[in-house]
Amino acid sequence: MHSKVSIIGAGTAGLVAGRELASRGIGTVIYDQKKELGVPVRASGIISINGLKMSGIAYESAVTNTLRGARIHAGGRIMHINAREPVAKVLDRKRLSDICEYEAEHAGAKITKGRRITGQMMDRLHKDSIIVGADGAVSNVATHFGMGPVERYVLTYKAEFNVDIDDPGSVDLFFDKRAFPGLFAWMCPNAKDLLEVGVGVDSGKANSKKAIERFIAMKEVKEMVGSAKMIDNGASMIPLRMRKRIVDPDKRVLLVGDAAGQVKGTTGGGIVYGSAAAIMAAQAIHDNISNGKSLSEYEKMFRKRYGSDLRLHTSINRIYSSLESRTVGRMISVMNFLGMDSFISKYGDMDLPSLLIKRFFLRGLV
Description:
Helix content is 40%, strand content 23%. The chain is α/β, with parallel strands linked by helices.
């Protein structure tokens, strides 16, 4: 098969892009340096149901748990968010990778594993094909083609424990500027008897391994984990800002997913925006090949649809990460008093915070 598009990186965004391109009849080869996709598992698997529907991935067989609520902890105060309907799924990330791999190959994309693409190889591929960089937060494609830096990263560290969980439908989020600067810590029931404990910290302000050790020593976590042994753990790096450029139409290079920095600044989640970007990038490439439209249409489409929400995620993160834990706790008390917990439970959206703001002004507190 003659490749008109070369995708570097076979994470979720790269595989979705490959699926979409191949389904449009475009010769596509996906390259990844791993011999087995999806391992080791470094990222958490909490993904909104609406976001999963947007991705087009047949994710159902990867589901390990369903979430409908959250408890937000700060300064000794707690806000309870309880939606009427399930809002998120917890997925087995290896299984999700297998599904995405199958979908891409079934659509007609070729996947080449165990091959690291050097700058020299990129240049050779680039002579005959459009390049899609889907190679993660520290993107060699972005660096090689001068796409500009990601301005901010967070480091995460997560571990899993086999424990019995009383409320497997809720995730606990802990905000503490000193202990977890830049993001937060969490306890998530990945299944009824499998608890994920994790932290995210600003890459320039803290060590993620030390942060998770402190977190596991906290009373709330110790009560959950007890004497259970850690069965899995791992670290990762996540971009919290989108690159200033995610497409160079003259060089015929596009970035999607973590490589582009298409990540929610509030949580570090990237599958929803990365998948949406991959679908838009595939459409822009199709239009470029078919009728000569500029590849820059991809960036225009993405920023028009999701730019304001990404900026809102960033602003929310900037606010909560700058406040002391006691201040956030007092804010929680006020919000509980005003009924904001009920309002967020009813109208909140994990991916599109602009919808919550619109509903607030249209409906007011309930």
